[in-house]
Amino acid sequence: MSKGFCLEVKGDFACFTRPEMKVERVSYDVITPSAARAIFDAILWKPAIRWRITKIEVLNPIRWANIRRNEVAHTASPKSKGIFIEDSRQQRAALLLRDVKYRLHGEFDFIPPEKRGKTSNPVPEWLVDAAEFDDLQKLDVRAAETEAKYAAMFERRAKKGQHFHHPYLGCREFAADVRLVDPSREPVTPIAKNDDLGWMLYDLDFSDPANIKPMFYRPEMKQGVIQVPHPESEEVRK
Amino acid sequence: MILQALKEYYDRKAADPDSGIAPPGWIAQKIDYMITIDETGNMVGGLERLREKRGKKESGWPCLVPNVGKQSIKHNNSGTDANLLWDNCGFVLGVGKRGEKKQEAFLAAASLFTNRVPDLGAKAICQFIEKARTDPSHVDPILKHPEWGVEIGTGSPTIAFHLHKDDPNSAKFIFQRRQVAEALSQSSEQEDKAEACVTGLCILTGETGQSIPLCHTVIKGIRGAQPAGATIVGINKDKTAFCSFGKEQAANSPISKTAADAYTKALNYLLNSTQRMQVGDASTVFWSEKKTDFEDKFAMFFSDPPKDNPDQHTQAVKALLDAPITGALPSEDLDAGKFFVLGLAAPAKARISIRFWIVSPLSEMQEKIRQHFRDLEIICPPYEKAIYSIFRLLLSTAARSEAKNIPPNLEGDTMRSILEGLPYPATLLQSVIRRIKAEQSLKNKKTGKSVPHISYVRAALIKACINRSCRFKKYKPEEELAVSLDPHNMNIGYRLGRLFATLEKIQQAANPGINATIRDRYYASASGTPAVVFGTLIKLSKHHLAKLKEGWRIHFEKILQEIIGGMNGTVAFPPHLPLEDQGRFAVGYYHQMQDFYPRKEKQD
To answer: The complex's ipTM?
Structure first.
């Protein structure tokens, strides 16, 4: 549990793709907690923290746009010889959101060193010296490993506009404009809309890397505000 | 939201016994041929053809048939997914590719069923098939039929059985026999071996532990899709670009079998009913949360009326427009919940793309449609029809009024802007004005007379575009265009349009019977660059006025004075008019022209 942060994000286009219409993309009506977490992660993420979204406020009315784009049918990978676009070009239509603006409230959970997962990209064996071997097995305990450290890091980075990669709204091509705000100093009224948004993707459960499972929840938007439940609560179905 | 709303529609319809939608375990299909057999599996009587002309096309006998899986709409390529107690000729008679395998599968399915439910009719079918396999001449009367043998030999017509002692009214087909039908309705979903499934969470209902099929049933009836049917949720087995986290096919979007059945049946039902219309390339379906009259009338607001009842749509629109005044809205419509409109297209033949999805409370939807018609209202010449469908509206923007010249996407975007209350697409205003300028000298090919380039439809469209975008920005009442001639409108474009119309009328009055007026030569430049042209036009008008008799001259001069006097102190004509003002020019021209032709007041 840490103190919460509020990010105001806005963008020209957004596409939070529905899993059932993945190919001809159709977006959800509002941002998913998964995409919101990705924005926080873009600013700061370390194995010591895990972001959790608590509240989403919708500030702009929900508007749609239908665009048709050229896409490719193959996935790029280091093993392949490259994608020859002429052979795999496909035109696909997408139903996206236009002119979105949200206030995302999130907090991070501090994970003590013993509980952190193993790195999935360790130093290769032939690079490890015998002398270092013991050191590498030890836990990552540093001095002053506290929550406040990471909170301060995040606040500093968010204020300066630093990020690991540019935050995006659902798909990488829809870049987001992100700004750290203090809701008590800059209050804002969300849209006056009540809606039952149906079952939406909450996030993905990475606890078992071999079988990553999606989690769903059923948000209720009351006057433009969505209270996002805790991932371990009953409202989130796995 | 979309699939969920469709599933809820299915639940509503399935609960209503009169709806005609297929309950779980059954599906609506058409049977082409019928074989009558007795209890030992021998054929009795001849083959009967049920395929006849219903409406425009020939089709089979429509009825509810047992539905044990997706093969009831479309078979896969394995040849082992047979339907139960009915199927196409390839499966029942073993003709065509993999015919032997198919017939085996059909027999296996029927035998499995007979073991569970020892019904006379089902047993008879099994015996018929067994006899056909041991002795091919058993089915000679069918395969070698003089008239229909060839069609049957292709393997595609559907065929079903009738037990000869059954009453054809109550049990036309064996699967309609009471014992069989009850057993089928009660049986839980039979897991088809050919169909792969995983267990997981269903994203439509939120329940865990559901069996998730990897392929969904196809949707038929979307224009432009392949005739065998297309899917909404569909990922090819080997197209890894669309798979995530190692999941295959539809496991990427887990939907349980019952929910998948429900939404596909609902969509197929809607596409086959009157609750659909075509908007450009998008087949559109619409429904409301609870049963309402509005569902049935919705199509009338936007499509062309049937030839035998051309006023039907005009009346529906009038009723809608008058409803708030006369209070004629039925009370059920007031709390009918939401109204859904779904536009589907198939740019890739086998996959459906969602063009638009609009949800809004019923009363808001009605209000938005009313607003659309109110925006289109403009003074109408007596020979014109008052209400036009979207297609006709857009046809007026196409070169030579040919449908293929309508800019793509325009119909879908216009429909969306109507239902969401947004301004019309910018392309619409542009297209209309471009057409008007291009047709300034259009003549009727037969009579040689001028065709009015600013027709009623075009003027209505321009007025609607301008008024809607006016309202969307900061609203200034003086910027809105009125229904008929508005002498108080000070906008320079509007006034210039009126001026141009008056000058043309003066020319026509001075030279009666003239074929080419200033409209033919100068309209486009007067509309786009007034400063260049109006000097010449006014100079010309002096000569025309001189030819007129005193009374007419004074009359026209008064009108000219009134128009020019209201041009608000501008010293010179503007060198260039922006697009919106060119639109106002066109509407001003139209209003003034209509005003020159007195019309009899209709006695209400």
So the answer is: 0.77
